Amino acid sequence: MPKLTVEGYGTFDVPQGKRLVNAIEQDAGVDILHACGGNARCTTCRVEFIAGEPTAMTVAEKERLAARGLTGVRLSCQLLCDADMSVRAISRLEGSGRPDPGGPPQDTITPPPQWT
Is the bond preceding 101 in cis, omega lying within 30 degrees of 0? Predict the structure, then answer.
């Protein structure tokens, strides 16, 4: 079972293969944004990796980050917890002015992942 450490929140055991956005919200109890419902369209679920950053990236994540000119961050909706990792949740509901974090992300990566 992978360990997920979220800076300022602690370390949590998470099920193998769980979407990172869901692990951060459900297991760590962090109010991470996912305005598009975890579909790699909005970049509100972005995180910074402290350790354990996966090398694989979905085409959707790569395209969205490039379109927004974002570097040094990853989209938690496009990542699976398949190893120990440590992240900083940088896009949270608190202080965002949004009424809610967004629609609930599905259990599987959407759109269906094409890995690079």
Answer: no
Can you read off the two tokens belonging to residue 58?
């979905």
Q: pTM of the entire structure?
A: 0.97
DSSP line for the chain:
--EEEETTTEEEE--TTEEHHHIIIIIS---B--TTSSSSSS-TTEEEEEE---S--BHHHHHHHHHHT--S-EEGGG-EE-S-EEEEE-SBSTTT--SSS-SPPPSS-SSPP-B-
pLDDT, tens digit (0-9, with 9 covering 90-100), for 64-99: 999 999 999 999 999 999 999 999 999 999 999 999
What are the structural domains of the chain?
Answer: 3-89 (3.10.20.30)
